[in-house]
Specification:
Chain lengths: ~450, ~120
């Protein structure tokens, strides 16, 4: 992308600057950062105004539009302030054991003292259906990379003190939960490495505990605090029952649900789809935690197109993302079907119009030749012709009769094609109507 | 017009920056152009996101002074913040793309089965 040239001089500064003054006054940021936000948004506004002026909008209107498009001032100021201040969102990194195991397995190559990756961790790394459908190896955990910790000879107590010093919320350490792993304040964390970032330290510890205890050290992030404990405890604390309505994509478009045969097909389809969603969910979202897969945390059951799931919040988050993706995919397919259906109807209609024209032309030809024959026949009958003219007319009549026979066959053929296309078109249109595609 | 959800915004913004350095307003235009106007990333979605990406090291930034044509050469222009995809951002984008492909493949398998469409 090339840097643009030809920007018009600033004008009507008062309106834009007044708006920027208001926005900046709402920013909860240090002065230097406020200035930067102001500069960036001013550039946005003036660039937009330039474009609107080029499109022919009067200047006052262009300025108003540009400001209006930026959205509600207080909301924008709040979002920018929050994004600028946020330092270490433990967020899903903290709650996502899959991430710990995944990140831990990545670390095995670089941290000499780590245990080899388990086969169990491999099953979790196949695909992670997460908030943004991306395995959470970097994006969510990146804030941890902003600081490193010298862990050589450090104890757990020292590790958590160090982490607390770098985070924006109080750290609550559940030593009772960590006891399960034999961790106490003065236990050496036993990672023989140069200073490494907090993300890696957590990943190593999570990997170790996961392999030995089938549970892992975990952090649970809340807006006002971060808790350190173990995953199973946090999971139990956040386990809730939620009901998911799958009717958006579980019910097919069948033409006549009043027909008992089609009703049962519809029910079977819904049941089948809901079952498939459950399978997909249980295979790809924390698979070992489902009771149906031998786990003890999550259960699911279905009634018609409703899915009831009892699971920890971290799993519900992933289920919602999965369902959103499925609905989006379903809608894409519906749109494609609609387009294909319309294309087919358009093609049939075009062929129908051609067949109709051909039929009418042949029909006219037939009538014309028939009339010509009748005239000749009339002349013969009335004795108006004699000698060579009579013979010539007889021959003409014979030719016309032959032509009429041929035309009749062609006409019948065109008529059949015309009628069949007409019928096809009526069916296609009524199918379209019934399927609610209009 | 679809407002981009935050989970897709990162992917979209990083892929715009994969084409070359850009700045806020130009990014919104690029998104609208690339999606034929179907996607819209609002200012309240984009600027916080760009800040987040910068903090995560996925993009680097620089400032440029832009002046109007024919403006007084001694007068100061307005400042423009440029965003460039960092190597880390490139890796992140590749991961997003790979995960997107995996998800697409998975969903295709699931939804293209005959019983899912009958």
């Amino acid at each position: 992308m090339k840097r643009s040239k030809g920007i018009s001089p600033p004008s009507n500064r008062d309106t834009i600057e007044s708006w920027l003054d208001v926005l900046v006054s709402m920013l909860n940021l240090p002065p230097s950062q406020r200035d930067q936000v102001r500069d960036e948004l001013e550039d946005h506004l003036r660039s937009r105004v330039d474009d609107l002026l080029i499109m022919g909008k009067p200047e006052p209107e262009a300025i108003q539009s540009a400001i209006h498009e930026l959205g509600e001032t207080a909301e924008l100021a709040k979002l920018i302030s929050t994004a600028s201040r946020t330092r270490t969102p433990f967020r899903r990194f903290a709650m996502n054991a899959t991430f710990f195991v995944l990140a831990g397995s990545i670390l095995t190559a670089s941290v000499s003292m780590m245990m080899p990756a388990s086969t169990h961790s491999a099953t979790n790394t196949t695909i992670t259906l997460s908030e943004d459908a991306v395995p959470k190896t970097t994006a969510e955990a990146d804030p941890f990379e902003s600081f490193t910790i010298d862990v050589r000879n450090a104890t757990f107590g020292e590790l958590f003190n160090e982490i607390e010093a770098h985070t924006d919320r109080p750290l609550i350490i559940h030593w009772d939960m960590l006891e399960e792993f034999g961790f106490s304040s003065d236990t050496p964390i036993n990672i023989d490495s140069n200073p490494i970032n907090a993300k890696l330290v957590f990943a190593i510890l999570a990997e170790r505990t996961e392999q030995v205890f089938y549970n892992s050290m975990a952090a649970y992030e809340r807006p006002d605090r971060i808790e350190i404990g173990n995953r199973n405890q946090f999971d139990r604390r956040t386990t809730v029952k939620r009901v998911y309505d799958l009717s958006d994509f579980a019910q097919p478009h069948l033409h006549d649900s009043s027909n008992s045969n089609q009703s049962s097909r519809m029910a079977a389809h819904t049941q089948n789809t809901v079952q498939r969603v459950m399978d997909l969910m249980q295979r790809h979202i924390s698979s070992r935690d489902w009771t149906s897969m031998g786990g003890s945390l999550a259960t699911s059951s279905a009634l018609n197109s409703t899915l009831v799931v009892t699971a920890p919040e971290r799993m519900h988050d992933e289920i919602r993302v999965l369902l959103d993706e499925l609905v989006a995919q379903h809608q894409r397919q519906q749109r494609e079907l609609q387009t294909q259906s319309q294309d087919a109807i358009d093609r049939i209609r075009a062929e129908y119009e051609i067949a109709k024209q051909k039929y009418l032309t042949k029909s006219n030809d037939y009538g014309r030749i028939q009339l010509q024959g009748q005239l000749i026949e009339q002349s013969i009958v009335q004795g108006e012709l004699s000698g060579p003219d009579f013979e010539k007319s007889q021959a003409q009549l014979g030719d016309l009769e032959l032509m009429l026979k041929e035309l009749k066959i062609e006409l019948q053929e065109q008529e059949r094609r015309y009628e069949s296309l007409q019928s096809l078109l009526i069916h296609a249109e009524s199918d379209k109507l019934r399927a609610g595609l209009n | 017009m679809l407002n981009l959800k935050q989970d897709h915004s990162t992917l979209v913004v990083l892929s715009v920056l994969a084409d070359g350095p850009s700045y806020g307003y130009a990014i919104t235009k690029a998104i609208a152009a690339k999606s034929d106007g179907h996607f819209k990333l609002t200012a309240s979605g984009m600027y916080p996101l760009l800040t987040k990406l910068e903090k995560q090291g996925l993009v680097t930034t620089s400032w440029e002074e832009v002046k109007a044509e024919g403006a007084d050469p001694d007068a100061s222009g307005r400042k423009r913040k440029w965003y460039t995809l960092s190597p880390k951002g490139r890796k992140q984008l590749d991961k997003h793309i790979e995960a997107h492909k995996q998800m697409q493949h998975l969903l295709d398998n699931f939804l293209s089965s005959p019983s899912a469409t009958t």
